[in-house]
Specification:
The longest helix has 13 residues. 23% of the residues lie in helices and 46% in strands. By secondary structure, the chain is α+β, with helices and mostly antiparallel strands. The strands form two sheets. Strands 1, 2, 3, 6, 7 and 8 form a six-stranded antiparallel beta sheet that branches. The chain has a two-stranded antiparallel ribbon with strand order 4-5.
């Protein structure tokens, strides 16, 4: 009896026990068909930064980074939200560095965020220095 209790505790601590079994059951209970609509909580996110030249871009979607990119630049990823993230939201961002505008001044590179093909945020062609952010829910 004591041995069974220890075995259950170790599985929970390792993160392998019931969580893996639940994960193993999920694919068998769902049918994946190429024509099926995306599952709730799964979204295609596209981050775009316009302009020419190279600029540092800080971004967060399914992955995150802060790297120098050649412009124009785009990243498309599938973001899968947990149940909690579906309720409270998941922040996606694209914050580009500065480029030289047509008048010779420096301004932030223009950015756009699209979720499931729909434009949900932009930085007003680089006029908003905060970049592009959007909170996905559901």
């Amino acid at each position: 009896m004591l041995l069974a209790g220890c075995g259950s505790g170790d599985e929970a601590k390792d993160g392998e026990g019931s969580a893996d079994r639940a994960g193993d059951k999920a694919p068998s209970s769902q049918s994946a068909s190429p024509d099926a609509a995306p599952e709730k909580g799964t979204h295609e996110v596209t981050l775009e930064v316009g302009g020419t030249g190279k600029v540092a871009v800080m971004y967060n979607a399914a992955s995150s980074g802060f790297e120098e990119q050649s412009l124009p630049w785009a990243l498309t990823e599938t973001v899968e939200l947990t149940a909690a993230e579906q309720r409270v939201g998941y922040l996606v961002t694209a914050v580009p560095g500065t480029i030289t505008a047509a008048d010779g001044s420096l301004q932030q590179a223009p950015c756009v965020i699209k979720v499931d093909g729909k434009k949900v945020a932009d930085n007003n062609a680089g006029k908003n220095p905060k970049g592009c952010t959007f909170t996905i829910k559901g």
